[in-house]
Design goal:
single chain; mainly alpha; 434 Repressor (Amino-terminal Domain); two-stranded antiparallel sheet
Length: 79
């Protein structure tokens, strides 16, 4: 299971904020931003700072990517 930060980059586009401006406002390095672009692990303190700047929650900037299709839900009495 990997973190996917595509929502963060879409949000930046939607609010017309440059990545460099986010780095400055949230005190995040360019190397950390590269980790986010590559879906690598980052410290939760960094995610908190980003969320504070963007006034959002974790679910607004990331999601977990399992890489698997969801299994169908079996309903009692219907299979």
């Amino acid at each position: 299971m990997n973190a996917n930060y595509n929502k963060l980059f879409k949000l930046l586009i939607d609010i017309r904020m440059k990545k460099g401006d986010l780095c400055e406002a949230a005190n995040v390095s360019q190397s950390t931003l590269a980790k986010l672009r590559n879906g690598e692990n980052v410290n939760t303190d960094i995610l908190v700072r980003i969320c504070k700047v963007l006034e959002c929650d974790f679910c607004d900037i990331m999601e977990l990517d399992t890489g698997e299709k969801a299994a169908p839900i079996l309903m009692k009495g219907r299979n």
